[in-house]
Structures are given as C-alpha cells and as structure tokens.
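hey m, so remember when u said the tokens were messed up on ur end? i reran from scratch. heres the input so u can diff it against urs
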Amino acid sequence: MGTLISIRNLTNQFGTQRVHDGLNLDIMQGEVLGIVGGSGSGKSVLLRTILGLNRPHSGEIHFGGQELMSMPDKDFACLKRRWGVMFQKGALFSSLTVADNIRFPLREFSSLTETEARELMYVRLAMVGLERDVARKYPAQLSGGMVKRVSLARALVLDPVVLFLDEPTSGLDPVSAEEFDQLIATLHRNLGLTVVMVTHDLDSLFSTCDRIAMLVDKQVIAGSLRELLANPHPVIQQYFGGGRAQVLLREH
C-alpha cells in the first residue's frame, strides 16, 4: 500500500497551549486507521486540521503528493470533493428531508439530473442498510443510529476515495454499534476505501482498524495493535491495560 496522506512536523497551538508539536503520521491507501488518545490529546483537532477546518501553526499535509496548506482555496475545495466526512452527531440539515440531505452534495458539486440524483440517493440509502421510505423523513424523526447511517450515505454520495469518521459509534447501544462497525468493514472491503476514524470505542478499534495512531506527548505513535501493545510507553500501556481492553484483546 502506498501513502495517501502524509503529515509532517505538524504543530497546532491555541494561544499558549500547544496541542501537537512536530507530529508526523502517514495514512496508507486502503487501510482503516483508528485515531485514539486521552481527553484533550487533540484527536478532533488533528482531524479538523486534515480536513482544512483548522489552520495549523506550522507543518505540512500532503494528499496524493499535493501539499494542502499551500494549495489555493479553489483547488483545495475541488480536492475535498474526493473526501467523505461523517461528523460525530451527523450534522444533518434539520429542515431538509433525508433525501435532500443526501442529495445536497450532488446539487452543489455534480452535474447529475434530478432523476439521476434521486436514484443515486436511493442506492446510497440501500448501501447503508436503510429502506427507501426513510427518504421522506426528517432528521428529528430518526433514531440516533439512523441519523448516523444517513450521514454516512451523504458522505458516500460523491464516491470518495477516503472516508473520515468522527466518533462513528458514540451514543449507540452495543448492538447498534456492532452493526455500524460491520457496515464500515463491509463498505471498506467492497468499495476499497481508505477509512480514518477518531474513536473512543475499543470494540471498533479492535474489530475494524488495520492500524492505530495514538496521540501521546503531543505527537503520534502508530502501528498495528500488536505493535502498540509491545510499546513500553506508560500512556499506551495504561490505555490498553485496563480490564475492558484486556477482555476485548482475549476475544480478538
């Protein structure tokens, strides 16, 4: 697998608080990478920086060989159409139906006819395990799990090459969370996606991710689960040494 996203010497600072200090990370094409770390370690800041929602203090981010920080805004906007993003709480437009939420990127960034956009919307609904009649509903009429699936359908509607997920299973009951993990694994396998997920969910981490990137000491330590377990850093050992983590490790 080649490198899809390369982050070099990334520093994020807010006032006097430095969140990341010379952070380096490679995201490989076709992998599922889980980003983890303690509260305040900068997981969401890192994701927002990659997405261009936060301007770093210094450093470089390369996507497919193109340096993003120096790229003109117009070119960066075009590039981001190749990315799918599912935010933690779905970020659906409450005044739009499910159908219009999913079709929104198509109306903004594609030349599809209304008929073509409608049919593609139904395809994406089916892809995330939802029935056609859900299209008529509004976000307030959906369960938490359905909101996440609709948000995922919208993230997939432009056929992205990389999918960014922010806490995809947060707020879900254990059964729904496991079903969502299985859905992500199926989409990754069938579509050949690169998936980057910020998560606190150890089940998701162990069952879905190929590699784990852990934020430690304002930088990243990345590797397979086996490699991280062998790392003597006390923060890593504490994170994976708890009772729940040990139970899951025995299961996986």
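this time it looks ok to me. The first strand starts at residue 3 and ends at 14. if urs says something different then somethings off w ur setup not the seq
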